[in-house]
Amino acid sequence: MRLLVVGRLSGQLASAVKMAMAHGAKVQHVERGDQATEQLRRGQGADLLMVDYRIDIAALIAANEAERIHVPVVACGVDAAAAEAAAAIKAGAKEFIPLPPDADLIAAVLAAVADDDRPMISADPAMKAVIGLADQVARSEASILITGESGVGKEVMARYLHQNSRRAERPFISVNCAAIPDNLLESELFGHEKGAFTGAVARRIGKFEEADGGTLLLDEISEMDARLQAKLLRAIQERVIDRVGGSKPVPVNIRIIATSNRDLAKAVAEGTFREDLLYRLNVVNLRLPSLRERPGDIAVLADHFVRKYAAANGVPPRPLSPEAHRALVAHRWNGNVRELENAMHRAVLLAVGPEIDVEAIRLPDGQPLSGGISPYDAGPAGRAAQTADTVSRAAVGQTVAQMEKTLILDTLSHCLGNRTHAATILGISIRTLRNKLNEYADEGTVIPAPQSGIAASGYAAA
């Protein structure tokens, strides 16, 4: 976790910095907003900006975005009035941290942004076999393609490979190719020269150069535009990159790890992914099994998440009851480890008594993991009849466009707003889903917010 602090390093802000460092953050400091933008341009990257609320946060964010730099901002300050804290949020800050700092709040904010506390935990033979293969290739320089359903832990595996590689002491840089629009992704990856486009007032170092000597993770590589795939192929083959607007190749020394939740061989056949790029990326393929294929991991992962979120929320850790363990193992977990993690977070907050019982484990819609008895609960055939009856009644009188909209929004809600997971279930690309959601938002429709079950209006996030 790389933290860039912006503002005068007063006693209270210095205390916040020390707390962040105690939680593993690597901290840099500048006093002014323009200095922060300049530092980011030079490739001294950051995962989070912690900015004194008295600095013009809106101007800082605008300057970064003009340079196609996207780093989340949290505001902080001493004795800030409620109106001043609200103004910082309206200016673009994701959170406000009052000073003097609270250690738990600092830890929670860093965890929410970095999400690095994801150790490789497994007890199932199917997953242990994959980890064994990862151990074999971790110290090599081979490019690795990690595949599997959304939520199985592909980024966790990428970090595990980096931590066990010969590049472990160098940077690990991650780029979500599905979350960044095509017109921004090229600059994000390769950087740009001064004057390359409107707003490019200085040279900016991209993720390839930022990861020099270390590992670059290209998350959801299947969503990359075909034109950019050609430039990526050259960078991998020649170990040089061209900044946007540049005239001279820049050498880079990195290891590439890519992930995809789609069948790239099928994408090649459909003409949406380059075959030669797939060969370059897929020197070693690590396919992560779904949680349904590794039931032996469910209990150990659930116990880990209970301890993690009990500590994060300041509540005493409680064990899962035997009934809860049985229910967890019996559940299908279509959302894989991510869905299990969210369920355990809710369970920690909802549990009463000395144990976390099955009643505390809720699905995203608030229903218990083991639903109640209904007239249709006569086994799989009865549940199928109930589903068919409900769907047919809801469909009558609706247009195809209305049915499509309902299906997309219901699937997105089921996935807690996760665009990538929803697109996978729907069988469409993340770009198509994003366009549909923006269309619905233009109509005034409320769009489920990412990573939560709460709806928020506005345009679709990636």
TrEMBL record:
Keyword field: Activator, ATP-binding, DNA-binding, Nucleotide-binding, Phosphoprotein, Transcription, Transcription regulation, Two-component regulatory system
Pfam entry (one): AAA_lid_14
Domain of life the protein comes from: Bacteria
Domain Sigma-54 factor interaction, first and last residues per copy: 120-349
4-aspartylphosphate: residues carrying this PTM: D52
Response regulatory domain residues: 2-114
SUPFAM superfamilies: CheY-like, Homeodomain-like, P-loop containing nucleoside triphosphate hydrolases
InterPro entries from the UniProt entry: AAA+_ATPase, AAA_lid_NorR, CheY-like_superfamily, Homeodomain-like_sf, HTH_Fis, P-loop_NTPase, Sig_transdc_resp-reg_receiver, Sigma_54_int
Protein name: Sigma-54-dependent Fis family transcriptional regulator
Organism: Brevundimonas vitisensis
